[in-house]
Amino acid sequence: MAQPFNTFQAGTAAVPATQVEISVSCRKLRDMDILSKSDPMCVLFTYDLRANTYYEFARTEVIQDNLNPNFVKKFVMNYFFEESQKLKFEVYDVDSQSSHLDKHEEVSLHFRATHLDKKDFFGKSDPYLVFYRANEDNSYTIVHKTEVIKNTLNPTWKPFTIHARALCNGDYDRSIRVECYDWDSDGGHDLIGEFTTNLRELSRGAGSNNQFPVIHPKKKQKKKKYKNSGEVILLECGIHQQHTFLDYIQSGTEMNFTVAVDFTASNGNPSSPTSLHYLNPYGTPNSYAAAIQAVGEIIQDYDSDKLFPALGFGARMSDGSVHHEFAMNFNPSNPYCQGISGVLQAYYNSLQKVQLYGPTNFAPVINHVARFAQAMPNGTNYFVLLIITDGVITDMPQTCQAIVNASRLPMSIIIVGVGDADFTAMNILDGDDVRVSANGQYAERDIVQFVPFSDFVNRGTSQMSQAALAKEVLAEIPEQFLSYMKKHNIKPKIQANAPPS
């Protein structure tokens, strides 16, 4: 049942949304247990359009021994009138040996084949494998394709890694069909043969149980003496638990959020309404304040002490010196501000004490945060630097080098571009397409996310604009965070110390 928000306040703006309560019941569920009935639980997933994937929203309670459960726990969520919100419901038997809901598993597989059929007239074959997951309606969905190995009947394919959810929906007993093809340049690839297995069998590793005769159905039907069209052999199968971002946060890893603000003259005089640093007498936040507030209000919840270093760069002080890394509270030995409100207060105070100058150098503030990250490489802390800027970088070589160095550390960089400047250089730093490099060295990880603030200025109310901005700039942080932990084999403390299951 929908319950409208009771938050009317004259003279303000509110996101047009309604709170919705979703009740779930199931009927005639499949019995997954041998000696008792299933113990079902329902999980609700919401769709993220940008990431093109579903993320878990919430779970119901577990109901023991029941194929027709009426779940007591309700899913309460916001329904936004202006958005298309896709939902997915999955029901699990939580005590089933084939259900691994609490384990984010990754499967590593390595195969070779012997004595495959010769398909090419002038050569041998160009074999590759295609893997399919069985669905509930007896159809199959392709989940992986190996590389093609040219001109051989005895190929060894490269090892590959796939999530257990993709391979078999986390169900160890779900059928996996594997087809072996001979690649042809005209696209008419010829079937060599196929076989069926499941993750439970594969998990037993190399051995006689995982040597699969490759069968061509038509040949088997036509030829009485037909045995097979070769054999595919499992060389290795490894199953590894993949920890989530929340696993680390819940086990005590702290996010350390630092703000760096561009005080260069290209932003315009703060007293002018055209300035990106305009101090509006009526309290309307400028682009810098809006970006600080939007991103900070989300990330501050991951920081237990709510103390945030706030830095500025490109400003000239009263003594004539230019600073490319200064504490906005003017206390270099303790640049921490209490909460996001403290950061905003320091920012507004700085605007009245410094002269906007230049140039626009990023490397000093990146290296500043990197020094702290370098001192804590063991996964207890992760550092996020938010740089808000209006212009073209003037120390591009030094910035690239600083990013390459920082990519080895527990650190991510968010760049929010305000104004209408040419942000081509920022897209170079955002290594989604080409990894950042300096002096012949490439960044170990993609740690930079750039977002132009102007993309979010006119998205409905100011609240909606800030929410959209925060979602965009923080979207890559969990994956960047996990890439560091995985590369350095750092596991969540609680899970690392738990007894083996």
Structural write-up:
- It contains 12 helices and 26 strands.
- The model is unreliable at about 1-10, about 95-100 and about 495-500 (pLDDT under 50).
- With about 500 residues, it is an alpha+beta fold.
- It is elongated.
- It is about 20% helix and about 30% strand.
- It has 3 domains: about 1-95, C2 domain (Immunoglobulin-like), CATH 2.60.40; about 105-240, Immunoglobulin-like; about 245-485, von Willebrand factor, type A domain (Rossmann fold, 3-Layer(aba) Sandwich).
- One of its GO terms (biological process) is cellular response to calcium ion.
CATH topology of the largest domain: Rossmann fold
Indicate the low-confidence ranges by residue numbers.
1-8, 97-102, 495-501
Query: Termini separation (Å)?
Result: 40 Å
Tell me the total number of β-strands: 26
Main β-sheet, in a few words? 7 strands, mixed
- The total of helices stands at 12
InterPro entries: C2_dom, C2_domain_sf, C2B_Copine, Copine, Copine_C, VWF_A, vWFA_dom_sf
GO molecular function: calcium-dependent phospholipid binding; metal ion binding
GO cellular component, one term: plasma membrane
GO biological process, one term: cellular response to calcium ion
Task: Give the arrangement of secondary structure elements.
Layout: E1 2-4, E2 17-22, E3 40-48, E4 53-59, E5 75-80, E6 87-93, E7 105-114, E8 127-134, E9 140-145, E10 160-163, H1 164-168, E11 175-182, E12 190-198, H2 199-202, E13 211-213, H3 217-222, E14 231-241, H4 245-250, E15 254-262, H5 287-299, E16 307-313, E17 315-316, E18 322-323, E19 326-327, E20 336-338, H6 339-351, E21 355-356, H7 363-374, E22 381-389, H8 396-406, E23 411-417, H9 424-429, E24 437-438, E25 441-442, E26 448-452, H10 462-474, H11 477-487, H12 493-497
Parallel strand pairs: 15-16, 15-22, 22-23, 23-26
Antiparallel strand pairs: 1-2, 2-5, 3-4, 3-6, 7-10, 7-14, 8-9, 8-11, 11-12, 13-14, 16-19, 16-20, 17-18, 17-21, 24-25
Helix pairs in contact: 5-6, 5-10, 7-8
